[in-house]
Write a structure and sequence with these properties.
The chain is mainly beta and 357 residues long. The chain has helices spanning 64-67, 173-178; strands spanning 2-6, 26-30, 37-42, 45-51, 58-61, 72-81, 84-91, 103-113, 117-122, 129-134, 158-170, 186-187, 191-202, 205-222, 226-247, 250-271, 274-278, 281-285, 288-310, 315-330, 337-352. It starts with a strand and ends in a 5-residue tail after the last strand.
């Protein structure tokens, strides 16, 4: 099995395969500065030090007796210490050695390291990238490549599921529901629930679909001759493109797209009985009650931004702030319509799904 990994990036899970090659763990470095020093540390043991040649390449082979036939799930780090690059491969259950004054970056993922594992690092990219092979790496991996970061590495897309909760703010609902009535208590900040799925084509590019559900908005008022209460029950489906900047365990993103809403507006109104006097005669004016309901649907815009913090390899917490337009007309052919900008804030969790193909 071949697996590409990156920093920061998607969690990688490498499984044991049968490989005919028989060599010890090997670290390869490409696109490194000529004359730089590369160190390889395997389970706290320094396996070797080498100077980068004039093609920007170097390799270090571990002592075959060190690991033997044993294998383990590894965490991998790259320390930058001036002109020295230190590659650390350590059991993921063991804390790494202190970085000291070096700048440390972690290769995101969990990697099976065994006798035949090869690790190929592109030091010229920012952040560094890594390719893993259980066996000898392809020759193409060891050739110098243009630097430019994560866009140049073989990347397997993945799905990420999300769910969250927060608050929303409807700008115009009270104005529409209450009109010119000044004493009209309204709930304009409903609880908001979201659930969605995104497919990441690249570490910085994804497409996302979400369902957003708003709790009911309400407004009510009582006058000398009437009372009423109204509510708006709504939800929307969003479709958006995401652009992201992955930085270690943190991903900063922005997104924009469209949404399709469905909403039901209900007004329950009562007119009180009244008495009028006309030409000296008292007349009863009967009141009554009625329920008015309008259903709307339509398309509007959406834009938002947020931050993911990956607390474990597959799980992140996130916060997002966005604005969308609930916009549409009556789905029953009447004259009712809605157009209301909504600002929302949600927090929740995301889960990277493993590739199954």
């Amino acid at each position: 099995m071949l697996r590409a990994a990156r920093l920061p990036g998607v969690a990688a899970f490498l499984y044991l395969i049968t490989v005919s090659a028989a060599h010890a763990q090997t670290v390869y470095v490409t696109n490194a500065p000529q004359g730089a020093i590369v160190e390889f540390v395997l389970e706290s043991t320094a396996e070797g030090t080498v100077t980068v040649n004039d093609t920007g390449s170097a390799s270090i082979v571990a002592d075959p007796a060190h690991l033997g036939t044993r294998q383990f799930d590894a965490a991998i780090f790259v320390d930058t210490c001036g002109t020295t690059r230190r590659v650390i491969v350590i059991d993921r259950t063991t804390p790494p050695p202190p970085a000291g004054s070096c700048r440390r970056t972690e290769i995101s993922g969990v990697f099976l390291v065994q006798k035949v594992t090869s690790l190929v690092f592109n030091i010229g990219s920012t952040p560094p990238t890594m390719l893993v092979r259980q066996g000898e790496p392809p020759a193409a991996w060891l050739k110098p490549t243009p630097t430019g970061g994560i866009a140049h590495i073989p990347y397997r897309g993945h799905f990420a599921l999300s769910g969250g909760a927060g608050l929303a703010k409807f700008r115009d609902y009270a104005t529409v529901a209450c009109g010119n009535i000044t004493n009209c208590p309204s709930d304009l900040s409903p609880l908001t629930w979201t659930a969605g799925a995104a497919y990441w084509f690249l570490p910085y590019l994804a497409a996302e679909g979400t369902y957003v559900r708003f709790d009911k908005l309400t407004a009510r008022a009582t006058g000398t001759t009437f009372n009423f209460d109204s509510d708006l029950d709504s939800g929307t489906i969003t479709i958006a493109g995401i652009g992201a900047y992955p930085a270690g365990k943190v991903t900063i993103y922005g997104k924009g797209g469209t949404n399709y809403h469905g909403a039901t507006s209900t007004v329950r109104e009562t007119i009180f009985d009244d008495v009028n006097t006309v030409n000296g005669e008292t007349q009863l004016v009967a009141g009554g009650s009625q329920v008015l309901q309008t259903r709307t649907g339509g398309w509007g815009w959406l834009f938002a931004g947020g931050v993911d913090v990956w607390v474990t390899k597959p799980v992140a917490i996130y916060g997002e702030v966005g604005r969308l337009l609930i916009n549409g007309s009556s789905t029953r052919g009447g004259e009712g319509n809605i157009s209301d900008p909504v600002t929302y804030v949600v927090v929740g969790a995301k889960v990277r799904m493993p590739n199954i193909w």
